[in-house]
From TrEMBL:
Listed InterPro entries: Cyt_P450, Cyt_P450_CS, Cyt_P450_E_grp-I, Cyt_P450_sf, Cytochrome_P450_Monoox, DNA/RNA_pol_sf, RT_dom
Identification of the protein by name: Reverse transcriptase domain-containing protein
Localisation: Endoplasmic reticulum membrane; Microsome membrane
Listed cofactors: heme
PROSITE patterns per record: CYTOCHROME_P450 (PS00086), RT_POL (PS50878)
Species annotation: Periplaneta americana (American cockroach)
Membrane as UniProt keyword: yes
Length: 463
């Protein structure tokens, strides 16, 4: 090992944590110091502690030796390493009982100081794949973290998740698996700051709970205007349903309730706002489509300036086609991933358990076999007769199967409501060409530099 730590052979980047005298504690202290500094500056840190399953035992020896060559070690050190790692004999001891010696074909020595060092070398280039997060690495202890102002914490959580997905794909490609049950995420900051993120939802929950208890555990729901009674069923808000359930058989604490509400708020916010932006952009690029969508609004409202109702929304068929076509070209969630827990065969290829599959919804939606002229914005793609001709999974902006989007109907209603308001009151045109918009997939598909619209109030002749 002398060769590795001699002058001139300083291990690069994160490998420094593995130098003599450094340990997991050193790495943890380093993170703690960074968090403390961030807190002093009023920042919050989102942190993930990753745990690799069978880390030391999964190392591919050839790959490790190839990586060691890139560290410019002397030939002697390399050939010693080669002979040391290949066909190693290993025995395990527990309470002074020793197992038999077994020949090991993979992995690095456990229990010796070399184990952590070699493992660090093996996974060191994880850092090159990170887009947003800082990290600390000591052997198989990896921490990803990101500091942010309290009001942008949700954005940081998205970024952290994005890097986390990259790390798990990277790890799977190198024969390593992340142990999801031990991988933890936490948000650290001054109590006052973190609380301010959650308090508003918590107080809504407490208020609503008090009302519910006051009503003998039955939420009155709504008074029964047209909007609140859909079809024959009287609808209750999601929070009310959760509250009723939690006062019945399934006990949920206020914090658990808040976590459920947070999931809905966060999943439902960025996705729909991105969806609306893309629809506005498309309508601004295609004046003939905007005019047709406006005519539909005129038919529905007959010149009235009243607020929109559920019945009105159900009549906006063309606007729905516009939204669906925008989500086809610009799906708010451009890709999704699945960790295989058993082997499967797809198209003659066997995919082993432990792999992460990524489905590129963006590409699926531009398949010319399913959508002739796939890059053209054409809301008629969602006429019933065209839908009937397509494969049922040719269009999956809300995913499909048991974990699909629970908010998809709500999302369409929300988008319709906002776009209807825009169409009734304004005209607009988009100032940027499709080829000039740079897309970024930060879990949610966004235009890197926003979208520029020129908006004029309806009735104003300037447009
Ligand atoms: C245009 C808007 C939206 C799009 C494109 C969208 C898309 C998606 C997709 C693709 C998934 C599946 C992720 C996966 O398979 O890994 C998903 C899951 C989910 N969505 Fe949405 N979503 C939207 C709006 C909403 C809204 C408004 C809500 C809530 C009010 C919501 C709540 C959820 C929840 C809770 C899940 C997780 C479901 C589960 O894991 O069982 N989404 N969404």
């Amino acid at each position: 090992m002398a060769g590795l730590c001699e002058g001139g052979n300083e291990p690069p980047g994160s490998l420094k944590a593995s130098k003599h005298g450094h340990s997991t504690t050193t790495a943890l202290l380093k993170v703690t110091e960074d968090i403390r500094k961030a807190m002093d500056m009023g920042e919050v840190t989102a942190l993930t502690l990753l745990d690799f399953s069978n880390a030391f035992g999964s190392v591919d020896i050839d790959l490790l030796l190839a990586k060691m060559k890139t560290l410019h070690l002397s030939d002697n050190t390399l050939s010693w390493m080669d002979s040391y790692l290949r066909d190693r004999q290993q025995c395990v001891s527990l309470d002074n009982q020793f197992s038999q010696w077994r020949c090991t074909k993979a992995g690095v020595p456990q229990g010796s100081v070399l184990g952590p060092l070699l493992f660090s070398i093996y996974i060191n280039d994880i850092s090159k794949n990170l887009q947003y997060c800082r990290y600390h690495l000591y052997a198989d202890d990896l921490q990803l973290y990101i500091h942010s102002r309290p009001n942008t914490i949700n954005e940081s959580i998205d970024k952290l998740n994005c890097d986390l997905a990259t790390v798990s794909t990277w790890a799977a490609n190198f024969g390593l698996a992340l142990n999801s049950s031990k991988t933890q995420a936490i948000i650290i900051g001054h109590k006052r700051l973190v609380n301010s993120l959650n308090n508003s939802n918590l107080s809504v929950i407490q208020e609503r709970k008090a009302q519910l208890l006051g009503n003998g555990n039955k939420m009155q729901g709504y008074s029964g205007s047209e909007d609140e009674v859909i079809g024959k069923k009287k609808r209750k808000a999601f929070l009310d349903l959760l509250l009723e359930a939690s006062l019945g058989g399934v006990k949920l604490t206020d914090t658990e309730l808040r976590e459920e509400v947070d999931t809905f708020m966060f999943e439902g916010h960025d996705t729909t706002s991105a969806g609306m932006c893309w629809a506005l952009y498309m309508l601004g690029l295609h004046p003939e489509v905007q005019a047709k969508a406006f005519e539909e609004q005129e038919r529905v409202f007959q010149g009235s300036t009243r607020s929109v109702t559920m019945k009105d929304l159900s009549e906006m068929k063309y606007l729905e086609q516009v939204i669906k076509e925008s989500l086809r070209l610009y799906p708010s969630v451009p890709f999704i991933g699945r960790l295989l827990n058993e082997d499967i065969e797809i198209g003659g290829y066997k995919l082993p358990a432990g792999c992460i599959l990524t489905l590129h919804i963006y590409q699926v939606h531009r398949n010319p076999k399913q959508f002739p002229n796939p890059h053209k914005f054409d809301p008629d793609n969602f006429l019933p007769e065209r839908i009937a001709k397509r494969h049922p999974y040719a269009y999956v902006p809300f995913s499909a199967g048991p974990r699909n989007c629970v908010g998809q109907k709500f999302a369409l209603l929300e988008e319709k409501t906002v776009l209807s308001y825009m169409l009734r009151n304004f005209k607009w045109s988009s100032l940027d060409k499709v080829e000039d918009i740079k897309l970024v997939a930060e879990l949610v598909l966004r235009p890197e530099n926003g979208i520029r619209l020129k908006i004029t109030k309806r009735g104003d002749k300037r447009l």
